[in-house]
UniProtKB/TrEMBL annotation:
Name of the gene this protein is made from: ATP1
Protein name, UniProt field: Putative type 2C P-type ATPase
Pfam families: Cation_ATPase (PF13246), Cation_ATPase_C (PF00689), Cation_ATPase_N (PF00690), E1-E2_ATPase (PF00122)
Organism, scientific name: Plasmodiophora brassicae (Clubroot disease agent)
Any Gene Ontology biological process: intracellular potassium ion homeostasis
High-level lineage: Eukaryota, Sar, Rhizaria, Endomyxa, Phytomyxea
Transmembrane segments annotated in the record for this chain: 88-107, 113-132, 272-293, 305-331, 882-905, 956-979, 1058-1078, 1093-1110
């Protein structure tokens, strides 16, 4: 009869109290059962009854579903309204209201009414563009939503069943197996070889050894956290927290509480809007004062309103908001092509202002899987990637020849032995490769192409081209350290994995054909594959998602290393393992014993092969011999010193060292069984000896940096960007990787300087420029120590918690840094939200992290971050170019109004002409600047200081309004006046004139009478010359704002095809407005002043070219001069 605890206990209302991990670990089994009110069989914990179904239903009603409470969806109208409240659009709204107010105050004149309506339409269209672009990003994000488990295996009422994970309640008995995701926070009752990847919660890159709550805390972790991955083994446990009460829910809540930082673009736009408003008010006030002096105080109120409205509307760049939104949308699409998914368009500018990148290590800087880096044998270190192909193994590929490999086990070649032993003394397993007819050449995929296809699937999720968003299994990268689904791992449950840290890894191969190679690890050098036997059968191993290697990280690395040279699975079939001592973290070694292949049994009946691999300190003392120079010789103290020195170098580089050794055992009859027993004290009892081993080689394993990361870090440093590593890993490992990828390169740590002083070298410890700091050390640091630390150039933070990361970001921002934070785990989400720009990983990132971030990297690559920063700098440059181009013509437009208000001349432009410029001729050229390429050295200049170097700086303001704006305005007024002059009307007749308006009557100048129709034609011709001079000046101006420093002739005048098309559209529009009859009627134009127009156009072209080329030459000559300070924008 079962001994059930709690089966008959009094059960209070469902729900109960929440408790912390610390409290749980101190509870006895009886107390835990009492507090969770469930039924546990103490004689066999695996068959505990658990909750009764009706109890579970009641708790589900009271406690709620086992899922995090989603953030309430933002209604579409609110999301659209947020874009309508953009400061630039608010300015247009204000101008529209004033225009309509003016129209209502002047009955019969509908011009201002049409202007107001057009401004409101422009506001809605511009907001709609931004709304649509962010909606596309949101759709792409939905392609990532596959993190939490769908089902859970539980025992209810003594019956094992599978339920939806959201229906789990506290007190449920959950069964965990390899490949499962933990569905809730679980206190483990049993744990057999259980290893769980909790990196998304803790940042620890290696899977965690788990134990039962009945075992002492030193045995391992006893609480499995919701959302973590079971990498090996199995176990049972009691659900102690569900939904928002889980650790993942608590961290997500912390992320929601972290305040977001306003983007630099929004701050710059608000500054720009204030500047425009202030300028308009000053101009309106100045003009009003002048008119009062000239005309007195008659109708003063009406003149105040009319002058203010006219000047404000003239100062508002109506086309600029659309141009800026278009630029950001174009940049977002361009960045998506570079695997950067932008969730908020306004953060694009922030990327270019980043001064510090806080990056995690695993999977971002490194490949997130172990690989064999180096081998040490025969007294030499050999990089694994540069090994020459073993000559004897090359021909031994077919199944008929594999039995000959047993000769190598007794050979005197340590490299051959290392390859074979890596395959045999190894618990990693793989699915068999399916043999199929060779695919046509045009359909073959390389490993790199397969990765590109998978990334493209993610991108298409946001573009609506597929009906179903790809799940994590289909758009993941090479899966290392994490099982993508329980289905992938289920195939390996028959092969027990009883080791420390488990990796499930995809192996891809290229088809056999003209390029007869295998590429097991992407990025590794190709090596010959199985050769002619398969090729003759017209069969091949093609890239298949189901080709999987499962095992601990070290075993998978050694499996893949051996697979380069032999077919590991076929080799194991031929050379059987007759006994195995599994690896244990306490013992730190494993061993296998192998029999003779069937084909050779008659020739070799006297020997069995013992292979041992493990930690240096455990295996080296057991070795008495060494395989060296083709012979087995005694292992001398000098040889031991060589081994220890080489392995010490490996360890200092953060690499894991394994030693391979062997021995021969006498063959035994078939009835003989090997035995091995080990008690809790570590005492071993076996019927074979593991002493007197022959040392073969040492292998150094590492999580290799991704290709290009080291160069990308240097590129950041040249750009004045500090790269800081923040990881949950051990500080020694973190420091080693940091040095490998150049995060620590140019400076010494205090420990290094102290060691140099001990060696007789001089060095001031206080001048250290690099530091490695742990989370525990951070918690005791003072503000002064923080200031000293953050002033260093190269910093690595190790063993960090979520609060540590949040504090790092907050303190960096307090020092004026623009901080980019990368992360993939739940533990990263608070810092991601708090950073100036949060960057989440798309392939391996958790939903919580992606939700908190502003940008998602589709390929999880640090190099992509650098590409994004470069793109951000280009966006800022192009936005400045758009503003420089667009606002230059405003001076001329204001001048057209000023000559009327100040001098009483006929208006230089009517309202429709102004709109034809702002919303017609300027649109296409300004948008084409979004496609402008970067100038040289964009990543060799320091980040801009956002507090000083604003989007609209004083030098840019001077350029737009003084150096370019005033000359264009003067030329436009000149063309306007010359048209009157060509018709015999002097300037004196125009000042404070009452003519050239409806109902004015004939104008007599000398003997010439100008009828009202003549006056209207001359005015239209003069206004057309004014309009044409502005537009054609901008026609030339657009080419000169293509660059800020470089000569346009060096950069390329016509290398932007969209700009070429845009200026042709601009030219076509102005010609149509001036020359096409029905356009003359609509815009009030006439083609009477062509000589004046084209003359001023020529002068404008010469001035703009000469001035800008001289200005850029002086900037290139000395960027630090006073001239550059005032003229460089």
């Amino acid at each position: 009869m079962e001994n059930q605890i709690g089966a008959k206990a009094e059960r209070p209302a469902a729900g109960g109290e929440d408790f912390s991990d610390k409290a749980l670990k101190t509870l006895s089994l009886d107390e835990l059962v009492k507090r969770t009110r469930t039924s546990v069989n103490t004689s066999d914990l695996d068959v505990s009854s658990g909750l009764k179904p009706e109890e579970a239903e009641e708790r589900l009603r009271n406690d709620g579903k086992n899922c995090m409470t989603p953030k309430p969806p933002v209604p579409l109208w609110k999301r659209f309204g947020k874009h309508l409240l953009d400061p630039m659009l608010v300015l247009l709204d204000f101008a529209g209201v004033l225009s309509i107010a003016t129209a209502l105050s002047t009955p019969g004149d509908t011009t201002d009414l049409y202007l107001g309506i057009l401004l409101f339409i422009l506001v809605v269209c511009t907001a709609g563009l931004s709304f649509f672009q962010e909606g596309q990003a949101e759709s792409a994000m939905q392609g990532f939503q596959k993190m939490m488990p769908q089902n859970a295996c539980v025992r209810r009422g003594g019956v094992q069943t599978t339920i939806n994970a959201v229906d789990l309640v506290r007190g449920d008995i959950v069964i965990l197996s390899t490949g499962d995701r933990v569905p809730a926070d679980v206190a483990l009752l049993t744990a057999r070889g259980l290893r769980i990847d909790m990196s998304s919660m803790t940042g620890e890159s290696l899977p965690v050894k788990m134990c039962s709550i009945l075992e002492p805390p030193a045995a391992g972790e006893s609480i499995a956290l919701s959302g973590s991955q079971v990498m090996a083994g199995n176990g049972t446990g009691i659900v102690v927290r569900t939904g928002d009460r889980c650790t993942i829910g608590q961290i997500a809540s912390l992320a929601n509480q972290a305040s977001t930082t306003e983007s630099t673009l929004r701050r710059n736009v608000e500054h720009f809007v204030k500047l425009i408003a202030a300028l308009a008010i000053v101009m309106a006030a100045a003009m009003f004062i002048v008119t009062i002096i000239q005309q007195g105080t008659k109708n003063i109120l009406q003149r105040i309103v009319s002058s203010f409205i006219v000047v404000l509307v003239a100062n508002v760049p109506e086309g600029l908001p659309a141009a800026v939104s278009g630029c950001l949308a174009v940049a977002a699409r361009r960045m998506a092509a570079k695997n950067v998914l932008v969730k908020r368009l306004e953060v694009l500018d922030t990327l270019g202002a980043v001064t510090t990148i806080c990056t995690d290590k695993t999977g971002t800087l490194t490949q997130n899987h172990m690989a064999v880096a180096c081998l040490f044998y025969e007294g030499e270190v050999q990089p694994a990637d540069s090994l020459s192909h073993p000559r004897h193994l090359k021909e031994l590929k077919s199944a008929e020849q594999l039995h000959g490999l047993f000769d190598i086990c007794f050979s005197n070649d340590p490299l051959h032995c290392t390859i074979v032993f890596s395959a045999l003394c190894n618990q990693a397993t793989a699915t068999d490769f399916v043999q199929i007819e060779e695919a046509p050449a045009e359909t073959k995929l390389t490993a790199a192409r397969t990765q590109d296809v998978r990334i493209d699937m993610v991108k298409r999720a946001g573009s609506g081209r597929t009906g179903k968003a790809p799940d994590a299994e289909r758009h993941g990268s090479l899966v290392l350290g994490m099982a993508e689904s329980s289905d992938n791992v289920a195939r390996f449950k028959s092969s027990p994995v009883l080791i420390d840290d488990v990796t499930i890894k995809r192996v891809r191969t290229m088809p056999i054909g003209k390029q007869d190679f295998t590429n097991i690890n992407r990025g590794e050098a190709p090596v010959p594959t199985r050769g002619k036997a398969d090729a003759l059968r017209k069969q091949t191993r093609v890239p298949r998602e189901r080709d999987v290697v499962a095992g601990n990280a070290s075993d998978v690395a050694m499996f893949c290393f051996a697979e380069r040279y032999v077919d590991v699975m076929e080799l194991r079939q031929e050379i059987k393992t007759i006994f195995m001592v599994p690896f244990s973290s306490e013992r730190k070694w494993m061993a296998t014993i192998h029999g003779v292949p069937a084909a050779d049994r008659t020739n070799r009946t006297s020997k069995h092969l013992l292979i041992v691999k493990g930690a240096l300190e455990r295996i080296l003392p057991k070795c008495k011999l060494v395989l060296k120079k083709g012979a087995v010789v005694p292992l001398t103290p000098d040889a031991i010193a060589e081994v220890e020195s080489a392995c010490g170098d490996f360890a200092r580089r953060g690499e894991r060292v394994l030693v391979m050794a062997m021995a021969t055992l006498p063959a035994q009859p078939d009835s003989f069984s090997y035995t091995f027993e080990e008690d809790e004290a570590g005492n071993i009892k076996s019927n074979f000896t593991i002493d007197n081993l022959t040392l073969i080689s040492c292998l150094a394993l590492h999580d290799p940096p991704k290709v290009g990361v080291a160069d990308a870090v240097l590129k950041c440093q040249r750009a004045g960007i500090r790269v800081t590593m923040i990881t949950g890993d051990h500080p020694a490992t973190a420091e080693a990787i940091a040095r490998h990828v150049n995060i620590i390169k140019h400076y010494h740590t205090r420990e290094e300087i102290a060691a140099m002083n001990l060696d007789g070298q001089s060095g001031d410890v206080e001048l250290a420029g690099a530091a490695v700091v742990t989370g525990a050390e951070m918690e005791s640091m003072t503000d002064q120590q923080w200031d000293e630390l953050l002033s260093m150039h190269e910093i690595v933070f190790a063993r960090t918690s979520p609060m540590n990361k949040l504090e790092i970001v907050t303190r960096l921002q307090a020092k004026g840094e623009v901080c980019a934070m990368t992360g993939d785990g739940v533990n990263d989400s608070p810092a991601l939200r708090r950073a100036d720009i949060g960057i989440a990983m798309g392939l391996r990132g958790h939903d919580v992290a992606r939700d908190a971030a502003d940008v998602v990297l589709v390929d999880d690559d640090f190099c992509t971050i650098v590409n994004g920063i470069e793109e951000g700098r280009l966006i800022f440059d192009n936005l400045r170019k758009i503003i420089a181009y667009t606002l230059t013509h405003l001076v001329a437009e204001v001048a057209a109004i000023a000559i009327t208000l100040l001098a009483g001349l006929p208006p230089g432009l009517n309202s429709f002409m102004i709109l034809s410029i702002d919303l017609g001729t300027e649109v296409c050229p300004s948008l084409s600047l979004s496609y402008e390429t970067a100038e040289d050295a964009i990543m060799q200049r320091p980040p801009r200081d956002d507090k000083v170097d604003r989007l609209v700086s004083i030098p840019l303001f001077l350029y737009m309004y003084v150096w370019a704006g005033i000359p264009v305005a003067m030329l436009s007024i000149g063309a306007y006046l010359l048209v009157f002059q060509s018709h015999g009307i002097p300037l004196s007749e125009l000042v404070h004139t009452s003519y050239f308006q409806p109902g004015c009557g004939p104008l007599l100048i000398g003997s010439t009478v100008f009828s009202e129709a003549d006056q209207q034609y001359i005015l239209s011709s003069a206004q057309s010359a004014f309009l044409g001079t502005i537009v054609l000046s901008q026609f030339w101006h657009i080419f000169h704002v293509k660059t800020r420093v470089n000569s346009i002739f060096e950069h390329g005048v016509f290398n932007n095809r969209l700009m070429n098309a845009g200026v042709l559209v601009e030219l076509g529009l102005v010609i149509a407005i001036v020359y096409v009859p029905f356009m003359n009627s609509a815009f009030g134009t006439a083609y009477g002043g062509q000589t004046e127009l084209w003359t001023m156009n020529l002068v404008s072209a010469v001035y703009l070219t000469g001035f800008n080329e001289f200005r850029k030459y002086m900037l290139r000559k000395d960027l630090t001069s006073t001239f550059s300070h005032w003229m460089g924008w």
